[in-house]
Amino acid sequence: MKKYLFIIKTQIIKSLTYEFNVYGNIIMQTIIMITSAYFWRALYSGRSTVEGVDADNMLTYVIISSALSVLLITNVERRIGRSVEKGTVACDMMKPVSLFWMFFAEDIGSIVALIFQNMLPILLIGSVMIKLPVMADIKDLPLFIVSVIESFLINWLIAALFGMTAFTAVNINALIQVKKHLIRLLSGSIIPIWFFPESVAKVLSSLPFVYIYQLPLSIYIGRGTRAEHMVQMQIQFIWLVILSALFFLVHNIVTRKVMVQGG
Amino acid sequence: MSRSFDTLRHYLDVTGVNIKMAFMTIIEYPANIAGWMISNPLQFIMGFAIIKFVVETFGEINGWDYGQLAFLYGLSVISHALSMIFFVQGWFMGWYVIEGDFDRYLTRPLGVLYQFFFTNINIFGITDLIPGIIVFIYGCVRSGVRASFLFVIQVLIMLIGATLIRGGIYILIGSTSFHTRSAVDFGQYTQEIMDKTTMYPISMYPESMQFILTYLIPIGWVSFYPVSSLLGIDNGISSGMITAFITLAVGILMMSLAGAYFNSGLKKYESAGN
User: Where are the domains of chain B?
Assistant: First the structure.
């Protein structure tokens, strides 16, 4: 455990080194957030509620989605991809730590740094420039926190599973893009799937992606009843179990046959 | 005169070799080809479907119906694809600065910016191009556009302009790495902003933002202004044939600005390592 805490600490220090990245990221994310807010305002002009959500709720959705996207940054897939491609995976595997726990600790470290560098500034800017993102029902807070933790884990496991294809495919830049688009468009991070036709929404709600963004966000803005949220959280938990099982299975297969390129 | 002609021919020769090399490197990893063939079309088909869902739920967006939006989306994706083929390296410029990869280019008797983009030409951008063309043709049919000779010329000119504007923006953002000495991949953020501002009519945004997108960061010229003139929609700034040429002019201006900024940054470049 101590080893991993040390990795987390190193990663935090690493993240604090480049000051410009911090400002650059904040500026870019602010522009995206404000554009999205105007986007929804324009769509909602002249309408009060669409699909049980009003414009005000959508603005909260945008702010919290931007903040949440900071928590859901993973580096594990790129990290595996690069170490397989360059052959450094052999050295990584010789270290006295478990390979994937090391990657996990690294991602946790970056996220701890990002919470202060990115997430809090974004929440602050959003509250000042758009609106105060108040939670619909504060009693749902524990539910929200649990669902965010699960969505973080699901997101990380999907990233790690995509990353592990590097052991056979070697170059996975394109697969990383596939994963990025799947999550971006199917998780409700930009456009919630309740605006999609019912048949599409039904298919998407059986996939794990909506449980990354949309579930915690709908709990936050209070769309749907608590009973509905509880059902969705059960599906979220089932996906977490399935993905973890898949992760350990694939992990055992790929680490047994590592090919080192140019080694 | 004949000397500059020779130089041009030399550059064209090198470009030919580079494209051949690019083809050879992409077949190195078959899984990668399959990945790109899935990922890029997937992205645009899903993006296009989402626009359809939004229109179905909310009705016309600021007076633009679904066919017109498809037209706008198609052209926007095509210019995106072209900028991916030629200028995507701008996204990764920071890594080149940090890892000292510009050394290689500085020692060769060719323009550094040229080498930077053309030795890494991205053939996979074609996978973006095809869905873009399909959606564009669909948009033409839906919105009843008659493809005359003049129309085709206008589309081609505006596409060149739009590609240059996008490329210019990538270079401008990438070149900040010379001053900050850090590698930040703003690619995804740039893409996200571009998506929201080029795939939907910018007239839906407040006036202050339209002003910025027209005069300060000319993203409005990438798709909104030329497309609304092509479709005969009033955009309050420019209409008719001239718009395509203004787009081209804006593109050339952006590219020259970006080139100048890149070269001034390159003077500060001092390689990497001990």
Answer: 40-113+123-267
